Amino acid sequence: MKRKLVLLFISLPFLAQAQLETYGKYTAGGSVEPNINYFGSKKITEKISLTFFGLIEQKWSEALIGAGYSPSNSFSIGASIGIEHGTNSPRFGAGIRTGKGKTSFSVLGELGNGKDNYLYKANLFYKYADQFTLGVTAWRFHGAGPNFRFTIPKLASTIWTMPAYDFEANKSKLMIGVNVNM
To answer: In the chain, what's the furthest Cα-to-Cα distance?
Structure first.
């Protein structure tokens, strides 16, 4: 069974719509933390899809697999379960996305073992022009702040930056990244 799940997880990107995101998180004081995320989905029916997510950082990683439900083009909801580095307990995730016209909103949450082992991320975006998107983001371990995105359609890529203040760590941070649709 474990081999079948590993094979499915490895082969799914070739059969699905996916996005690779890599970014650096720069903290006041000079530390830099690289991060790589991989998200994908494969439609099973017109409204239901299989989803997968992987994240790798210097000291932590996770992999989640789940399902999404999209009753319309403007709304989706999903849930997932997976593993995280350094524990024997499962990690759970859930999220919603909605949008109308040029405005979109998404929120996701994750929960691992322990009362402090959680993550949240909320995005509110406005597509100002075909290539420019402006927004605000609140993201645990990253901070809250504006989010600026520049899309390069010919490369199916988006370059983004987010200056933020992390209220838990009491530090300013700057994320600079690129998303590549696959």
So the answer is: 49
